[in-house]
Amino acid sequence: MMFPDPAWQAQQRQHEQRRFREMNEASARRRRSRSGTGLGGLLKFLLLVAAVVLLVKNPELRTEAWTFVQHFWTDVQNA
């Protein structure tokens, strides 16, 4: 009957620990990258909502913005 080799067992434990640590680090990187994207998207959405509310409440600003868009679109088409 053979006895387990302690050096081999230690090597296997070390290998498993390294794989476990690498998997946790990769998972943490994915979580950080997703949370940053979500926050940026939320900020853009809030700015868009604020701009729409401002345009709805202020008819003069709405008219000026519409005129700007029309001039801008004309310039883009003529370019």
Describe what this molecule looks like in 3D.
The chain has 79 residues and is mainly alpha-helical. It has two helices and no strands.
What average pLDDT do the residues reach?
86
Q: What share of residues is helical? A: over 70%
In whole angstroms, the N-to-C terminal distance is 86 Å
Count helical runs: 2
Q: In terms of structural class, how would the helical and strand content be classed?
A: mainly alpha
Main beta-sheet annotation: none
Uncertain runs are: none
β-strand number = 0
Sequence of secondary-structure elements = HH
Overall form: rod-shaped
- Radius of gyration of CA atoms, rounded to a whole number: 29 Å
Binned strand content: under 5%
List the keywords.
91% helix, 2 helices, 79 residues, mainly alpha
